[in-house]
Design a protein that fits this description.
By secondary structure, the protein is α/β, with parallel strands linked by helices. Helix content is 52%, strand content 12%. An eight-stranded parallel β-barrel has the order 1-2-3-4-7-8-9-10, surrounded by five helices. Strands 5-6 form a two-stranded antiparallel ribbon. The model has no long low-confidence stretch (mean pLDDT 96). The structure holds zinc ion (ZN). The site of zinc ion (ZN) has 6 residues, from loops.
């Protein structure tokens, strides 16, 4: 099972927007851009919403059937580990192995020295085709990288073999993710991580590093865009080189766990993909849930009332909702509108504050981030919320499709 060159991870917290999401990918197809849609959902999201991996499979299958999509699509067991992978085996064909928690845990010293002995031939200056500067690596750095990452890659190997024994060789796609950690990985680290992945026999088709800069939930990138662009290009070059050096799958590509909406780096990504003729998996989550709120608000009446209620309750439970996401949000409480103010808003005013349009002066990134992590509130509303999604389906679907197509697919893959 091969993952195509371009793939797009679409999260859908409440599982109602599969068709509207696929519609955006279908529009791209009509424009001549082939993108494989991948529906992703993590164990944490399932737990908060009260859904299971089987629900994502049903949603994906139904969307594909309804739209007559005759091309590939995948269901991603997002950020799984050995303790929860079994829940996803049956319904998923894409597995994102999350070993970030194991990074930095001491690897076996014998394994470290064997690794260093084998790969010290790369110490000194390594010329990587496609990037101007050679990678400068000392034997000491190789050893430090081995110490920091080998245990994590061993763990990825254990999860991978577990999945392989259950699903059979070649019947699933593997991503190795290391993004949910505090330190970004350098291109040199990436090179030796890929060596270790090859050693462990993991047939990884995508790798998700942590990039430099801040990837806050649902809002734009914060950081040095020029530095990101340089790192991103170096990663693409390192991957192409490592595929040849270590015999990794030919289609191995970068995966960007974007936290959604990193608009200011999309141009750099687009240029780099063209320059290196490289593939990409880009994972988004939560952006669709916010379009649901926008659609409800614009629908007016009961829809707008629900959208306002979600915000008022989210504000009241700020610490509880933001706590688990503390490292990936930056909310200034002073900038959050009071519920009494929001209560007076029209649907358009609510939508303008929430919609990720930085050229609109009413856009409020603090409001947006709080709602992004506030989906638990909607989950607790149960049928009241889900029935409203059904009632305002048309307005919501329009916003979901337009958001994915115009604000994500176009700048990343086209132009
Ligand atoms: Zn991630």
């Amino acid at each position: 099972m091969i993952l195509e060159k371009y793939s797009f991870g679409i999260g859908d917290r409440f599982g109602r927007e599969g068709k509207a999401q696929l519609q955006a990918v279908k529009k791209a197809k009509n424009d001549g851009i082939d993108i494989t849609p991948v529906w992703n959902k993590s164990h944490r999201e399932h737990t908060i919403i009260g859904t299971g991996p089987g629900d994502v499979r049903i949603e994906a299958d139904e969307a594909v059937q309804a739209l007559g999509w005759a091309h590939s699509y995948r269901v991603d067991a997002d950020h799984i580990g050995l303790k929860n992978v079994d829940l996803f085996i049956e319904s998923s064909d894409f597995f994102t192995l999350d070993v970030a928690d194991f990074i930095g845990q001491a690897a076996d010293e014998k394994q470290v020295s064997a690794f260093v002995n084998k790969y010290k031939k790369y110490s000194g200056s390594v010329a990587i085709p496609g990037i101007g500067e050679a990678l400068e690596i000392s034997e000491g750095q190789i050893e430090a990288i081995a110490r920091k990452f080998l245990l994590a890659i061993n763990e990825a190997g254990r999860i991978w073999r577990h999945i392989e024994s259950a699903k059979g060789a070649g019947n699933f796609i593997t991503e190795v993710s290391m993004d949910e950690t505090d330190q970004p990985q350098t291109p040199a680290e990436m090179f030796f991580i890929l060596a270790a992945i090859a050693e462990a026999g993991i047939e990884a088709q995508t790798i998700a590093p942590k990039f430099t800069g801040r990837f806050n939930k649902g809002v734009d990138y914060v950081g040095d865009v020029g530095r990101f662009a340089k790192e991103f290009e170096a990663d693409l070059a390192v991957i192409a080189f490592a595929v040849k050096e270590f015999g990794l799958p030919e289609n191995l590509k970068l995966s960007v766990h974007s936290g959604s909406d990193k608009f200011s780096i999309y141009t750099s990504i687009n240029k780099a993909l063209k320059k290196f003729d490289a593939g990409l998996h880009i994972k988004t989550a939560g952006t669709t849930w916010l379009e649901e709120l926008i659609g409800l608000a614009l629908g007016g009446g009961e829809g707008l009332a629900i959208a306002k209620e979600v915000y008022a309750k989210a504000l009241g439970r700020f610490d509880e909702l933001c706590g688990p996401y503390a490292t990936v949000i930056d909310i200034d409480n002073e900038e959050l509108p009071r519920p009494a103010v929001v209560e007076q808003w029209s649907g358009e005013e609510y939508a303008d504050a929430l919609r990720h349009d930085q050229s609109c002066e009413k856009y409020n990134p603090h409001f947006r981030q709080l709602l992004h992590v506030g989906y638990k509130i909607a989950a607790e509303m149960g049928d009241d919320f889900l029935n409203a999604l059904d009632k305002f389906e048309e307005t919501i679907a329009q916003n979901v499709t337009e958001n994915i197509y115009e604000r994500h697919i176009k700048p990343i893959f086209m132009a």
